[in-house]
Amino acid sequence: MNTPAASPLVRAAEGAEERWFFGGGIHRWLVRAEETNGAFFLHEEVLTAGKATPLHSHPADETMFVLEGSIRVHIAGDEREVTAGGVAVAPREVPHAFLVTGEPTRLLCLHTPGACQGFYLGASGPADTTDQVIDFDRVMASGRANGGFTFLGPPPFADRAVSSA
Fold first, then answer.
1. Would residue 13 count as lying in a domain?
2. What is the tens place of the pLDDT at every residue in 124-157?
């Protein structure tokens, strides 16, 4: 069965929705899953050094392109540094995490298919109206309710992290 193609989309930079992610950082939603018929979800993350994600998996491939700064990624037990211009791909259901090591750091994150958007929606609020505090309980609840995120444990680099989610 063929899925209908998405409609053409052109969006100016100022047209992207900015959201505070309760795990830390500002997300700029560039292309929503419903705009691609679910094929993908694309957002930019603006992060500070020390932010770490717990070890987790989800039902979409995640491609992280480092626009600025650096991250240390842990994918399937392998840990590597990725600097500006580099890319990391975490295939769906493969355990992974990352630690922000550069200041500032900007990532372009592509989820294929767009199945993870519901998680990010439930784990964030509009950047201009949300108190920008870490609320890991809300992140975990959204993972259970919205996106098939499975949290497998603390950040594998927890001794170097400032905040995790």
1. no
2. 999 988 788 999 999 999 999 997 799 999 999 8
- List the domain range (segments joined by +) for residue 143: 18-164
The length of the chain, given as a count of residues: 165
Please check whether residue 80 is in contact with residue 73, taking contact to mean a CB–CB distance below 8 angstroms: yes
Amino acid at 54: P
With tokens 């070890």, the residue in question is 55
Cβ neighbours, 10 Å, residue 85: 9
State both tokens at 165. 């989610």
Side-chain-side CA neighbours of residue 150 (13 Å): 10
Q: Tell whether 9 is covered by a domain.
A: no
Q: Say how many domains are in the chain.
A: 1
Tokens of 115: 């199945």
Residue carrying the six token digits 């050094």: 49
Q: Residue 128: how many CB atoms within 10 A of its CB?
A: 8
CA distance 60 to 117: 10
DSSP 79-143: EEEEETT-EEEE-TT--EEEEE-SSSEEEEEEEESGGGHHHHHHTEEETTTS-----HHHHHHHI
Q: How far apart are CA 72 and CA 100, in angstroms?
A: 6
